[in-house]
Each structure stands twice: as structure tokens, then as C-alpha cells.
């Protein structure tokens, strides 16, 4: 469903490319992983797919096809129509992505307000259902709360609820569990897996943590310095890494987690 072809990105403020000609596909219903160390270009790739980088900030070329439609050369209006409806993003720091002055329910409903003609009552019902889908206790209570009244793990669930409320085809999850403790991290990963299975939603899961990717993804692409050095089924990459960079990434995982 998503096909990135020979994508190059260079910020106007930089003298080198952040993304140097990558090819990447996400199949319908698949959880695809994108790993690599800090600065390798993962977030820039996600921002390009979600239309968050515009020509005012960076030069880019190549193709990003969503069901054959080229997003890279689509106009701002078309990008806004796709953003939040067909493609949604969940970031690492839910607090910074939320409006502290707005109740949770309104924030979860936001993309329904922008993209649908649903009535206020219908939006509320859909938002409550999304809060239930992400297994938040007391959805009605959470709906009325402000972000600072929730824990980090709960906020990340709210972010996922806001991302899935319009049933997007593709969820971009950029380090969504990095800021959470291990138990909550495992719960969020299980939640993403369930949503993928039950809603058939494709996920591009970005992480520097190969161990987490192995738990969740079917395939993985490894990124180094703006290039994809290796792509394949997750077990193949994990047990038979070909690229020296992937071998180093795996060697860096603590031993008890390798098997
Ligand atoms: N707004 C920007 N202006 C200039 N350079 C940027 C900008 N955003 C990112 N970069 C550069 O692009 C490169 C890729 O950054 P990116 O955030 O995609 O890395 P990443 O792999 O997601 O790292 P991390 O795991 O730390 O999030 C880096 O060299 C970064 O400094």
C-alpha cells in the first residue's frame, strides 16, 4: 500500500542529505519495522510520508506512493485530506503532541471534526469507542480529563486512540514506547499488534531498538546514515544479518535478549 522509491531529503539548513535515496514498502495489513541509530533518518522518512515536511524546509525528490497516489507531489490541500484520515502518526512524547488546555475527548475527536460530517454526538461516541479500543479504564472519565491528569502510559494510549479514531489505513508509530517503562511498553506493543490484527491497519513502526521490533514486526528495514542497508523478514535480519551495520546493531543488544 505504501511504496517509497528513491527518496532523497535535504534540509535547507544542512550541507548533506538526511535521507539518501531509500526504497521501502509497507504491504497491506503488515507491521513493518524501521530501525537504525539516532540520526539515521527514520523520523525524517516518517515526516515525509505523513506530509509534515514541506518544500519551505527541505528539498526532496523521489516518490512516495499511497495506493499508487504520489504524496510527494500532492498539493497541501490533498496532503491535509490524507493526514489524519488515511495516514496517522503516533510520536514518542505524547505530552508534547497534545494541547494541555484541551480536554482529552476533544483532542481524540479532532480528526473526525476535520475529516467527517459526523454530528457532535456521533463524534463523542466514536471517541469513546476509540478510548475503549485502546483499553483505557473508565473511558468516560478519561474523555473529560486534561492531559496533565494522566500518566505517560495512559497518554500514549490516548495518542493511539486519537490516531485510530478515523480508522486510518496506515499508522506511523515513531518510537511510541521509548519514553515508557518496560511493563507499559509491552502493553502498548500488544495493543498495536491487536489493532493491526483486528482492524487490518498497516503500521510502520520506527525504533532504534531491534529487540522491540522483533517482537512486533514481520519485516524490518535497517537504516544507516540516510540509507537502507538491509531489508527482510525480521528473523532473517536478526539471525542472519548481512550488512556489517546490522551485525553491529545486533551485537549491541544485551545477550539475554538475543534469543
Ligand atoms: N529540522 C531539521 N533541520 C535540519 N536537519 C534536521 C532536521 N531534522 C532532522 N535533521 C537531521 O536529519 C538527520 C536525520 O534525523 P532523524 O530525526 O530522521 O533521525 P532518526 O533516525 O529519527 O533519529 P532518532 O532515533 O534520534 O529520532 C539528522 O542528521 C538530523 O540532524
From TrEMBL:
The keyword Disulfide bond does not apply. Its main location: membrane. CDD domains: ABC_NikE_OppD_transporters. InterPro entries: AAA+_ATPase, ABC_Ni/Peptide_Import, ABC_transporter-like_ATP-bd, ABC_transporter-like_CS, P-loop_NTPase. The keyword Ligase does not apply. It is a peripheral membrane protein. GO terms for cellular component: plasma membrane. Gene3D superfamilies: P-loop containing nucleotide triphosphate hydrolases. SUPFAM superfamilies: P-loop containing nucleoside triphosphate hydrolases (SSF52540). It comes from the Bacteria. It is found in: Cell membrane. Keywords: ATP-binding, Cell membrane, Membrane, Nucleotide-binding, Transport. SMART domains: AAA. Residues 2-250 form the ABC transporter domain. GO terms for molecular function: ATP binding; ATP hydrolysis activity. Pfam families: ABC_tran. Belongs to the ABC transporter superfamily. This is ABC transporter ATP-binding protein. It comes from Vescimonas coprocola.
Amino acid at each position: 500500500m505504501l511504496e517509497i522509491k528513491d527518496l532523497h531529503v535535504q534540509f535547507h539548513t544542512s550541507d548533506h542529505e538526511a535521507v539518501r535515496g531509500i526504497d521501502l514498502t509497507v504491504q497491506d495489513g503488515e507491521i513493518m519495522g524501521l530501525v537504525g541509530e539516532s540520526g539515521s533518518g527514520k523520523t525524517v522518512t516518517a515526516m515525509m510520508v505523513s506530509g509534515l515536511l514541506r518544500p519551505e524546509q527541505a528539498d526532496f525528490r523521489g516518490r512516495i506512493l499511497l495506493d499508487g497516489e504520489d504524496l510527494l507531489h500532492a498539493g497541501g490541500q490533498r496532503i491535509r485530506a490524507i493526514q489524519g484520515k488515511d495516514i496517522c502518526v503516533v510520536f514518542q512524547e505524547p505530552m508534547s503532541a497534545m494541547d494541555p488546555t484541551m480536554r482529552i475527548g476533544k483532542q481524540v475527536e479532532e480528526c473526525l471534526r476535520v475529516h467527517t460530517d459526523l454530528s457532535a454526538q456521533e463524534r463523542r461516541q466514536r471517541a469513546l469507542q476509540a478510548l475503549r479500543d485502546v483499553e483505557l479504564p473508565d473511558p468516560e472519565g478519561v474523555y473529560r480529563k486534561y492531559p496533565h491528569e494522566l500518566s505517560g502510559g495512559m497518554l500514549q494510549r490516548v495518542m493511539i486512540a486519537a490516531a485510530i479514531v478515523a480508522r486510518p489505513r496506515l499508522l506511523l508509530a515513531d518510537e511510541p514506547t521509548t519514553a515508557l517503562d518496560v511493563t507499559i511498553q509491552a502493553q502498548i506493543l500488544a495493543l498495536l499488534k491487536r489493532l493491526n490484527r483486528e482492524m487490518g491497519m498497516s503500521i510502520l513502526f520506527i525504533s532504534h531498538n531491534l529487540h522491540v521490533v522483533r517482537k512486533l514486526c514481520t519485516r524490518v528495514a535497517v537504516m544507516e546514515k540516510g540509507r537502507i542497508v538491509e531489508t527482510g523478514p525480521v528473523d532473517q535480519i536478526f539471525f542472519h544479518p548481512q550488512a556489517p551495520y546490522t551485525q553491529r546493531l545486533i551485537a549491541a543488544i544485551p545477550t539475554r535478549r538475543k534469543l
